[in-house]
Amino acid sequence: MGTGCPPGRCAELGAALAAGPARTSLLVLGDGSACRTVKAPGYLDERAAPFDALAAEALGAADTAALAGLDPVLAEEIGAAGRAPWQVLAGAAAGAGLAGKLLYDEAPYGVGYFVAAWS
Hints:
By secondary structure, the chain is α+β, with helices and mostly antiparallel strands. It has five helices and two strands. The chain has helices spanning 7-18, 48-61, 64-68, 72-77, 83-93; strands at 100-106, 113-118. It has a two-stranded antiparallel ribbon with strand order 1-2. A hairpin with a 6-residue loop joins strand 1 (100-106) and strand 2 (113-118). Helix 1 crosses helix 5 (83-93). The relative contact order is 0.26.
């Protein structure tokens, strides 16, 4: 699966991961936008901070619908490589009633980084 994986396919992959009879744990890695400052790898894009804010809020709230709704075209344009992995997570956790906590939300070097825990 790459950054271009369509949202529906991401959700299917996540659901398949969680479909087994055993409990499932996931470690999901993915960057936010790479366009938060003029020194960022993708230079400054005014759409990056709002995208990252939405992603951070969704990750912190374990909001699977918000993660599933992240725009793949915008994510690609602003270098948000985490969009597809987060949508796999959303597919795996849909309907599980998990709670989330956002532990880190910063953009060193102009790249959005988040740490969240869901349980």
